[in-house]
């Protein structure tokens, strides 16, 4: 498979490093005067980030309307409420203070504020935004890469779906990445973030197209994350290790790893979303379970591609060993690799398969049918 034609576009201005948040106020003033501040369930207040950020905004003379309580697996209902509040208060700029769930929610709020369309229609690709309210982000969890891309994922508990939407209007204007804002992330969620960024890189690697230099860059992101992981997990307050993982997560999904590819695969993410929807599992923890199972399914179908991954990542090409070494790594950072590791009983496999088949979860390159999904669930 040759290099695919591609268009590279990323308008996000990235502010990276300790102390960068100090310029947040002046940056936001370029876009508006009345800020809708979105955040999660309270950790930003507990650890002082909220106080620092709101202080900076007030010193810049900005008006603030708050919407807190975004869930770890973000809900479209919260997005609807935030849109209604933003319209009522006539906000003209959005600040997302948090991790992927907060930022993803803020992206859909940014387009919802200027359209009289239910936001779930965007998520179902039934409507497409023509404009958006400017969005600025302050990242507090390195994992999803959403701070520098145009994608968002939301779930709808009424319809039983967790889906993603991608559109250029979802790009943030500016994103502030201060590793000091991630030192309070606990060990388990730090590990889940590492699993998430590795999965993003793998989704690109198994996309359509094989640009050799991008393959190497993609695998080097994985290698760096695997090297940095034990250092960080043994020293959670170390901002140098935090910065390395933060940059890995951003590079894994800011478009770079898809240069020369016409798409990523994303089948593993689709399957993982069902575990989050059914059991409230952290997203990264679902991926460390599903990815080895997906690779086992594909072992006889795309052996050369998996062997190339193994050669670049581990210096070996035996497919079974490659998958085992990936599982060993996930286990070493206390990420689950089987459903049982996450406390999900074997008896739930039928429920999981039913949910996956109901939504016809599949990839974009390696398409999955009912029998494939059944085999993947068995491997899990």
Describe this structure in words.
This protein has 380 residues and is α/β, with parallel strands linked by helices. It folds into two domains: 158 residues, 3-Layer(aba) Sandwich (Rossmann fold); 193 residues, Dehydroquinate synthase-like - alpha domain (Dehydroquinate synthase-like, alpha domain). The strands form two sheets. Strands 1-8-5-4-2-3 form a six-stranded parallel sheet, with helices on both faces. Strand 6 and strand 7 form a beta hairpin. Helix 4 packs across helix 5, helix 7 packs parallel to helix 11 and helix 8 runs antiparallel to helix 9. The longest helix is centred in the middle third of the chain and has 22 residues. It starts with 12 loop residues before the first strand and ends with a helix.
Query: Helical proportion?
Result: 40-55%
- Helix-strand category: alpha/beta
- End-to-end C-alpha gap: 30 Å
What number of structural domains do the residues give?
A: 2
Note the main sheet.
6 strands, parallel
Short description:
The protein has 380 residues and is of the alpha/beta class. The chain has 15 helices and eight strands.
Keywords:
single chain; 380 residues; alpha/beta; Rossmann fold; Dehydroquinate synthase-like, alpha domain; 2 domains; two-stranded antiparallel ribbon; 15 helices
List the helices and strands and how they pair.
Layout: E1 13-16, H1 24-28, E2 34-38, H2 43-46, H3 49-59, E3 63-67, H4 76-89, E4 93-98, H5 100-112, H6 119-123, E5 135-139, E6 151-156, E7 161-166, E8 174-177, H7 187-205, H8 212-233, H9 239-252, H10 267-279, H11 283-298, H12 303-314, H13 319-332, H14 349-358, H15 370-379
Parallel strand pairs: 1-8, 2-3, 2-4, 4-5, 5-8
Antiparallel strand pairs: 6-7
Helix pairs in contact: 4-5, 7-8, 7-9, 7-11, 8-9, 10-11, 11-13, 11-15, 12-13, 14-15
């Amino acid at each position: 498979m040759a290099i695919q034609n591609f268009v590279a576009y990323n308008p996000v201005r990235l502010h990276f490093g300790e102390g960068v948040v100090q310029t947040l106020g002046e940056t936001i003033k370029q876009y508006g005067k009345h800020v809708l501040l979105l955040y999660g369930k309270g950790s930003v207040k507990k650890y002082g980030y909220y106080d620092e950020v709101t202080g900076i905004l007030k010193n810049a003379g900005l008006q603030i309307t708050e919407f807190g309580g975004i869930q770890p697996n973000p809900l479209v209902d919260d997005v609807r409420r935030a849109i209604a509040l933003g319209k009522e208060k006539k906000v003209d700029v959005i600040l997302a203070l948090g991790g992927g769930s907060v930022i993803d929610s803020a992206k859909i709020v940014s387009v919802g504020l200027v359209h009289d369309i239910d936001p779930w229609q965007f998520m179902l690709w039934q409507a497409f935004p023509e404009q958006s309210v400017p969005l600025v982000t302050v990242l507090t969890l390195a994992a999803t890469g959403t701070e520098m891309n145009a994608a968002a994922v939301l779930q709808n508990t009424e319809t039983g779906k967790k889906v993603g939407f991608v559109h250029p209007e979802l790009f943030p204007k500016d994103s502030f990445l201060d590793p000091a804002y991630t030192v309070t992330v606990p060990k388990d969620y730090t590990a889940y973030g590492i699993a998430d960024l590795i999965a993003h890189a793998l989704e690109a690697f198994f996309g359509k197209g094989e640009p050799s230099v991008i393959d190497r860059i993609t695998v080097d992101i994985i290698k760096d994350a695997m090297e940095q992981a034990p250092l960080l997990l043994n020293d959670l307050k170390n901002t140098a290790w935090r910065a390395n993982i933060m940059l890995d997560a951003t590079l894994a999904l800011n478009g770079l790893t898809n240069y020369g590819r016409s798409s990523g695969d994303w089948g593993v993410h689709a399957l993982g979303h069902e575990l989050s929807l059914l059991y409230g599992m952290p997203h990264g923890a679902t991926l460390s379970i599903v990815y080895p199972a997906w690779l086992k399914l594909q072992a006889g179908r795309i052996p050369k591609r998996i062997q190339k991954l193994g050669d670049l990542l581990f210096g070996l090409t035996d497919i079974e060993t490659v998958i085992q070494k990936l599982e060993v790594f996930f286990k070493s950072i206390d990420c689950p690799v089987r459903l049982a590791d996450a406390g999900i009983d074997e008896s739930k496999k039928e429920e999981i398969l039913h949910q996956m088949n109901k939504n016809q979860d599949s990839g974009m390159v390696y398409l999955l049918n009912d029998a494939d999904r059944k085999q993947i669930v068995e491997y899990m």
